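User: quick one
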Amino acid sequence: MELNEKQLNLLKMLPGIDHIIELSKTEPSFFNVPRSVLLLSIRKTVGKLRNEILDVSHGLNEKDLTDSMVIEKIKDVVNKAMTPNLKQVINATGVVIHTNLGRSILAADALANLDLIAGNYSNLEFDLEKGERGLRYTAVEELLCELSGAEAAMAVNNNAAAVLLCLETIARNKSVIVSRGELVEIGGSFRIPDIIAKSGAILKEVGTTNRTRFQDYAGAIENETGLLLKVHTSNYSIVGFTENVNLKELVSLGSKHNIPVMEDLGSGTFIDFSAYGLTKEPTVQDSVSAGADIVTFSGDKLLGGPQAGIIVGKKDILDKIKKNPLTRALRIDKLTLAALESTLRLYRDPEKAVQLIPTLLMLTIPVDLIKKRAAKLIRLLTGIKNSALSVKPVDLNSKAGGGSLPLIDLPSKCIAMKIAGMSANFIERSMRENIPPIIGRIEDDNYIMDIRTVKEDELIIIKDAVTAILRRN
Ligand SMILES: *Cc1c(COP(=O)(O)O)cnc(C)c1O
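Assistant: Done. Structure below.
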């Protein structure tokens, strides 16, 4: 590569590593930085500057290479290295169960128990009555049975693990009958056909995408059939000319042929959402009382707890699952278990649960309350008194997310924000780069914040972020 005179000059100017190490010794903001981090940051910065000199499109100049400029750049790299990668964000998307933003946030009780169990020894696998080894599932099994009406229960790492484990235990080397209308894909590459293949079972599809009848299932049963599987189509809906077989009918078919029936509910809830003006999602109790042998669902979707996969059902099958060596690889950890137990305890009083479990509260909150909070944010923002800023309330819909309540739009109050001289993309990015990051969306060239998922104490943080962005204008 032919370098021009300016490039050669700049390369000569680029400070040496040793020189910068010397300089950094007197820089107070580096005093508490581990030496390894500082060295790595210096090397990274100098390497990056060298590349920028070699690629003229960066338009680097002499003034970019002074000692103080280089130290400033190193400070940025050091800062980034010293702040945790996983950080709190403000969810202004209105999507309550946002998989990319961590799905459900935990109830206060769950957080407190998490803290207690994580910071101390516990009876995780110790039976305090007998003084001998116990099972970790004991913490939630009884509660899950009480809430669902099932004979037995356990919890594993997540629902994907729960489905895999059940299939592997019940149907390995056997066929699993599933309707073509229920061969779902969930985000993050969970596909029912793939998980069946991985479990060692053989998928037997029946019916068509839009219509599957009882006779389709009945006609597909053979000697090798190990399981009838029903999957809740949690993130889409087939409408129009449709037909499907309900769980009760499948259970009757299964019991006639002595074949177990499993339902993967996906989201899974103990609450009847129709009582709150939302569409009813199938509840775990419904599936159990319809006679399913096994029901699986997530801990962090509509349930509003930590990431977990919950299995409830008949005792003889659960006994087999608990003995499956795969269980050890998919087991729930103690922190999750602590948070899950506390979350489940709240469901004993469903009305309280809806108030105390943030996911449920955000899904069922009356739009008037969102409106009040939005009005408060508008007051805070107009209080900045900057003529470049314009904010107005808009009626838009929020989504439940997490593959639940797929078809319903929840009427919400949003704030549409514009700043003269800034594109919506620029605003979106600046808000995302705030500490803590604020995640909104763009619609019709407006920056939109949906207040359904914004907490009261986060309003002031949003105001400060907007103030800072306006200052850069
Ligand atoms: C979400 C979902 C899963 C996967 O659950 P995770 O807890 O995310 O592993 C499986 N099946 C269905 C139907 C789902 O909706």
